[in-house]
């Protein structure tokens, strides 16, 4: 059982001096979990220029920051990309002009009753196994559930979820998420993965989404990797939004997961002020691919309450994509996604590189193409009226 956020003793919190000397790689993840800062006032003296926010902000969404993450934050700059992601801000007290929701993705509507399984696509499901994370992101799309202090999903709900997956043979792909599945002990994770493999042999692809690998890399231990290997987890998707989150300790632990035979992918959320910059994204995705972690999705910020100040307009996302395609390695370019309101699902944001136009040839067989650098060419034969000529006789 995890420590409740509000039970964390102030004496366990690190002062600035202690943080400067702190070796996160040498302390167990459980101890670090207990040292999380859970109120902005606790960071005064640790970081300068801490913004005071109203207590009402905490009623909507808790704060939780691991000492490892606090140490990565810029001591003086309130616009540090890590501080923006994790520290509460006055923006959360303001109302945007557009509507925000608690469940923009409409996940509750697609959740199977009595379970924590979201079944939206025919052959794959999202299995929400945990209600908490090591460090809480202010833009979280699941604010409605991850701010829970004890981080547990009821055991009978977990059992009902495994039953549901076991009884539906069309399900081939299961993504364990939350919250963060790695907030569990190895034993609990071992049990859930083992039961899934035993009771649902039709599941072909088992993957885990985790940001804890990034927020608290010591969570990745040889024991955890043995569990992943034992149950043949095929993929672990991590979530990084800025190159500052990539450290030698993270690289070391990523390698441990890879040695267990697990593919790794990267998810990123496009956040105003944090990473809505071509150079930042180029660096992030190249560092990721260097680690052998394939950039997978860049999501637009969801319209959840208190996250409106992070939203990057659609046209800017297209510009960012165009700043990647052709400019960095192809496998390092992720798909940009907007999650459709109310459960429409993932909608790719794709700039137009090939345009079908009725050109001077008049018969509509030519398309106009442009490359990443804006150079254009007309390609005859690819257009809508293209036909393979039949044999004349
Ligand atoms: S790690 Fe993911 S689920 Fe957890 S708070 Fe951040 S965005 Fe939400």
Describe the protein.
- By secondary structure, this protein is of the alpha/beta class.
- The protein is built from 13 helices and twelve strands.
- The protein has helices spanning 16-20, 29-34, 56-60, 67-72, 81-86, 143-146, 155-166, 186-199, 212-215, 222-230, 248-259, 278-290, 314-322, and strands at residues 117-121, 124-128, 173-177, 205-210, 235-239, 263-270, 294-300, 335-340, 345-348, 354-356, 366-370, 376-380.
- The strands form two sheets. The protein has a nine-stranded mixed sheet.
- Helices cover 27% and strands 16% of the residues.
- α7 packs parallel to α8 (186-199) and α8 runs parallel beside α10.
- The radius of gyration is 23 Å and the shape is globular.
- It has three domains: 5-93, no CATH class; 108-348, Alpha-Beta Barrel (TIM Barrel); 353-393, no CATH class.
- The site of iron/sulfur cluster (SF4) has 10 residues, from loops.
Helix-strand blueprint:
Blueprint: H1 16-20, H2 29-34, H3 56-60, H4 67-72, H5 81-86, E1 117-121, E2 124-128, H6 143-146, H7 155-166, E3 173-177, H8 186-199, E4 205-210, H9 212-215, H10 222-230, E5 235-239, H11 248-259, E6 263-270, H12 278-290, E7 294-300, H13 314-322, E8 335-340, E9 345-348, E10 354-356, E11 366-370, E12 376-380
Parallel strand pairs: 2-3, 3-4, 4-5, 5-6, 6-7, 7-8
Antiparallel strand pairs: 1-2, 8-9, 10-11, 11-12
The chain binds iron/sulfur cluster.
